[in-house]
Design a protein that fits this description.
Helix content is 29%, strand content 31%. By secondary structure, the protein is α/β, with parallel strands linked by helices. It has a 6-stranded mixed beta sheet. It is elongated, with a radius of gyration of 30 Å. It starts with 5 loop residues before the first helix and ends with a strand.
Length: 127
């Protein structure tokens, strides 16, 4: 019996055994630096909550510096979280001449919810 030369069978195995080009595969997968940038970072700040009877119940007065740090403009919603358990949502009222690390809120609402004057809280922009 005469069989064909080994050249024909080796060319078939070369075609079947070709691996995909690694450079082409790497163009599909994004670099790690891009994956890290895709996640938005929540900016928050620890502040003191001070009673202010002059403010309406749905308004929190914050300083201009604090507003720029947490990226809030006038009328935006902010969350004030006291003790990690009690969340309040307010509209931001930006004022000048107040301390950087204080937030002024309506005293009646805070008292009803068990928040003392000068309590430590976290403030952040409402998503």
């Amino acid at each position: 019996m005469i069989y064909g030369s080994g050249e024909a069978s080796s060319s078939k195995s070369d075609e079947a055994g070709k691996k995909p080009d690694i450079i082409k595969l790497l163009t599909i997968v994004p670099p790690a630096s891009e994956l890290k940038q895709a996640k938005a970072k929540v900016i928050e700040r620890r502040v003191r909550v001070i009673y202010d009877d002059q403010l309406p119940k749905d308004v929190a007065k914050i300083s201009q510096e604090l507003a720029s740090e947490i990226r809030v403009s006038e009328g935006d919603s902010v969350e004030v979280i006291v003790g990690g358990k009690k969340k309040f949502v307010y509209k931001a009222l930006i004022a000048s001449g107040i301390q950087f690390n204080t937030v002024y809120c309506n005293s009646e609402e805070l008292r009803l919810n068990g928040v003392a004057n000068n309590s430590i809280a976290t403030i952040r922009r409402k998503a």
